[in-house]
């Protein structure tokens, strides 16, 4: 498909994201990401393809490895290739996030909001249809996981070598230890703490139990690797 793309990243007005509803003791980064395609024959007509938002701790995101995993999880259902994510999206978004974090005007700002707009300029009308068809095909990932597959996830307490006091059951503690190799949840971006309820997807990726259940009620794919849970 012959197409060109452009990326526009802007900082929006601050303020707390509405879904948080309470003060959080961390500096946060909120990202609104959108993908649209237009026809070069008629640029006034835009087709909205994909939108996703995410909020998390700023210090966690500003690490390149964490930024890569977070951005991958945000666009996992979009049809965007991993190569595009790793070579274009991650460097551009991370660079802008670090720059915004360093600005004097943002010192003491608890929430930095970034708007990321990816505009795909397709050369011909039939190619627009092809792109839309591809994106609609990928939207199958938005189907929720089946209730039975969600219920099959085992809840365990996060376990840390330095504190066993909260986990009296050896079997539960050992399972929690096995799941604790990843130190944070890629959905909410928070670190795991002793006593947190966590779970492992069949692919091996670990999340807060409540976070991944909420995710799977919308999309049956793992946020990090596209592993697909069963659907109804």
Secondary structure elements and pairings:
Elements (H helix, E strand, L loop, with lengths): L2 E10 L15 E12 L2 E16 H4 L2 H12 L6 H21 L8 E12 L2 H14 L8 H5 L4 E2 L12 H10 L17 E4 L5 E3 H8 L16
Parallel strand pairs: 2-4
Antiparallel strand pairs: 1-4, 2-3, 5-6, 6-7
Helix pairs in contact: 2-3
Structure description:
The chain has 232 residues and is of the alpha+beta class. It folds into two domains: 3-141, no CATH class; 147-216, 2-Layer Sandwich (Herpes Virus-1), CATH 3.30.40. 32% of the residues lie in helices and 25% in strands. The chain is built from seven helices and seven strands. It has helices at residues 58-61, 64-75, 82-102, 125-138, 147-151, 170-179, 209-216, and strands at 3-12, 28-39, 42-57, 111-122, 156-157, 197-200, 206-208. Strands 1-4-2-3 form a four-stranded mixed β-sheet. A three-stranded antiparallel β-sheet has the order 5-6-7. α2 crosses α3 (82-102). It is globular.
Order of helices and strands: EEEHHHEHHEHEEH
Structural class by helix and strand composition: alpha+beta
Helix content: 25-40%
Q: What's the gyration radius in Å?
A: 20 Å
How many runs of DSSP E, i.e. beta strands? 7
Number of domains: 2
How much strand? 25-35%
Largest beta sheet: strand ordering: 1-4-2-3
Shape: globular
Largest sheet: 4 strands, mixed
The overall pLDDT average reads 76
* Helix count from the secondary structure assignment: 7
Low-confidence stretches: 135-140, 162-181
Amino-to-carboxy terminus distance: 34 Å
């Amino acid at each position: 498909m012959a197409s060109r793309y452009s990326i526009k990243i802007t900082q929006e007005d601050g303020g707390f994201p509405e879904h948080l509803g309470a003060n959080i003791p961390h500096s946060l980064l909120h990202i609104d990401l959108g993908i649209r395609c237009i026809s070069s024959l008629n640029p006034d007509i835009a087709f909205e393809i994909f939108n996703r938002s995410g909020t998390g701790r700023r210090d966690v995101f500003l690490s390149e490895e964490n930024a890569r995993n977070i951005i991958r999880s945000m666009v996992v259902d979009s049809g965007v290739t991993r190569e595009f994510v790793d070579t274009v999206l991650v460097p551009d978004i991370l660079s802008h996030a670090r720059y915004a974090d360093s600005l004097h005007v943002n010192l003491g700002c608890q929430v930095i909001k970034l708007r990321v707009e990816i505009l795909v300029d397709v050369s011909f009308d039939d190619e627009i249809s092809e792109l839309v068809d591809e994106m609609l095909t990928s939207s199958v990932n938005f189907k929720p996981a089946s209730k039975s597959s969600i219920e099959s996830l085992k809840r365990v307490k996060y376990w840390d070598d330095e504190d066993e006091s909260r986990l009296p059951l050896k079997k539960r503690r050992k399972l929690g230890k096995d799941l604790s190799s990843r130190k944070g949840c890629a959905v909410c971006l928070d670190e795991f703490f002793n006593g947190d309820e966590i779970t492992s997807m069949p692919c091996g990726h670990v999340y807060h139990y409540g976070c991944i259940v909420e995710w799977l009620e919308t999309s049956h794919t793992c946020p990090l690797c596209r592993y697909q849970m069963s659907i109804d």
